[in-house]
Amino acid sequence: MRRFYISGCGGMLGEAFYALFKDEFSLKCTDIDVNEKWLSHCDVRDFQEYHEDVGNFKPDYLFHLAAHTDLEYCELNQDDAFITNALSVENAVYIANELDIPLFYVSTAGIFNGKKDAYDDWDIPSPSGAYGRSKHIGEIIVRKNARTHLICRPGWMMGGGPKKDKKFVQKLMVQIKAGKKTLHIVNDKLGTPTYTRDFAKNVMFLLEETLMRRELWGLYNMVCEGQTSRLEVAKELLEILGRKDIRIIEVSSDYFKKEYFVPRPESERLINRKLKLRGLNIMRNWKVALREYLEDYYDAM
Q: Tens of pLDDT along 237-257?
């Protein structure tokens, strides 16, 4: 049975990997926030702790999911953002190389400045802000130093349900549950949703293929199919819920500038060009994934 060490596994993406892998593989899932019985503690920023914990488990693969993803937190706590999102990645690279095992790293669509309508795997990143810069540095560290690696870039994450999801869909569901009859939705942000369960499945498929075709290691965009916007996602969510009684008021991003003071790229749309060219894209359309997510996690239907 193959052995996977998954760090930073306490969030929405870690939940998806655990659910997919737990019955087929031997797992050690860790986080600094031990919020599940299947988690144990490890702070990836502490090299000695990380090194010892991974070494004792002797995994076949090291998955590094640990990251700060809150843009406002990263901007206000830049040292912590770079320690967590960049320096801890150096720790992971060193450990993976020492054990001679593949390293899997999760990047982000946030490494682009949003000036293009959409970005493929070969577009040159140009991040702004502490979050985007720190994640881009992490990506560079892996690409230049990890002997064997996979880097996958998701887009707008959705998954984990009320317990784990801290992103757009959950924020809408909180307002709906609270009885809100109007939702203020930005009309100037474009992107590509990424359902965590679909992401985990495509990573697993890609990993299986690399066992037979060594040239498949490297960098991949990995988002759900279908280009969209925050506004369209909100409209589709209400359509799935059958909530015609809720009205959407379109606003610009300036409406939320007090709460979300870190500028977001105008477009975070990604294209899975490399996955498609290699016949490895199994990501579903975001509308299909959103419906399944709401049904499975929110009893929406």
A: 999 999 999 999 999 999 999
* Reported confidence tier of residue 212, pLDDT bands at 50, 70, 90: confident
DSSP characters for 48-101? HHHHHHHHHH--SEEEE------HHHHHH-HHHHHIIIIIHHHHHHHHHHHHT-
Question: What is the C-alpha to C-alpha distance for residues 265 and 127, in angstroms, rounded to an integer?
Answer: 9
Q: Are 266 and 188 in contact (CB under 8 A)?
A: yes
Phi, psi at residue 268, to the nearest 5°? Answer: -120, 30
**What total of structural domains would you count in the chain?**
1
125 lies in a domain?
yes
Residue at 68 is within a domain: yes
In 3-state terms, what secondary structure has residue 266?
coil
**In the prediction, which pLDDT does 300 show?**
57
**Geometric angle at alpha carbon 235, from 115 and 187, rounded to 5°:** 30
Whether 86 and 111 have beta carbons less than 8 Å apart is answered as no
Q: Which residues pair with 104 in a beta bridge?
A: 63, 150
CA–CA separation, 144 and 163 (whole Å): 36
Domain with 47 in it: what CATH number?
Answer: 3.40.50.720
Question: How many other C-beta atoms are found inside a 10 Å radius of the C-beta of residue 279?
Answer: 8
Structural domain includes residue 238: no
Structural tokens at position 152: 């996958």
Does residue 120 lie in a domain region?
yes
In this structure, are strands 103-106 and 61-64 parallel, antiparallel, or unpaired? parallel
